[in-house]
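Q&A FORM
Asked by: J.P.
Topic: structure of Type 1 glutamine amidotransferase family protein

PROVIDED:
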Amino acid sequence: MSSSVGRKPVHLAVYDTLADWETGHTTAYLARAGYEIRTVGPTRAPVTSIGGLRVEPGLALDDVRPQDSALLILPGADLWDAGDDLAPFARKARAFLDAGVPVAAICGATAGLAREGLLDDRDHTSAVSFYLAPTGYKGAERYVDADAVTDGNLVTAGPTEPVAFAREVFRLLGVYEGEVLDAWYRLFHDSDAEAYAVLAKAGQ
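REPLIED BY: S.T.
REPLY: Here is the structure written out as tokens.
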């Protein structure tokens, strides 16, 4: 596991209709690894997830700068497909990627990135390929039928793959690597009891 000394925080986007199950593995284990998780809303006004959880953002989107962050996480939400309310988050993702700072998007957030043109020239995945087609994006040939995909500093995944999504984030940030990363994934994705021994030996 990488050292936590001097580590920048991870920013988790939160907005109404947030799919609250999609990023739980990612944020929980990043926090256990020493990352501070900071929530970012459209403003600092409370938002409510699909599951009815009320979240008070710690920061407003306008106050977040790529240079102050280790990663921007964009969860899915019904709002991604209901208009342009969340488009500012996709534009912020562009700023992060342009600055060389990682972005991880799952479910509906992948459609938001497609509309922003961020998937036109990057390998990516989502729920299914035809979900992204109505965005009018030009990256259909870069779609990968996989549980989660990393291309450079961008991680994408579909709504049924929160564990694979976390796996890719951990690999990208160097939180877990090699045998330990594989064991973590097998434990939480496959309920593989043998993975416990590997993690225990590694002190996880």
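FOLLOW-UP: The helical segments are 24-32, 87-98, 108-115, 129-132, 162-173, 178-190, 194-201.
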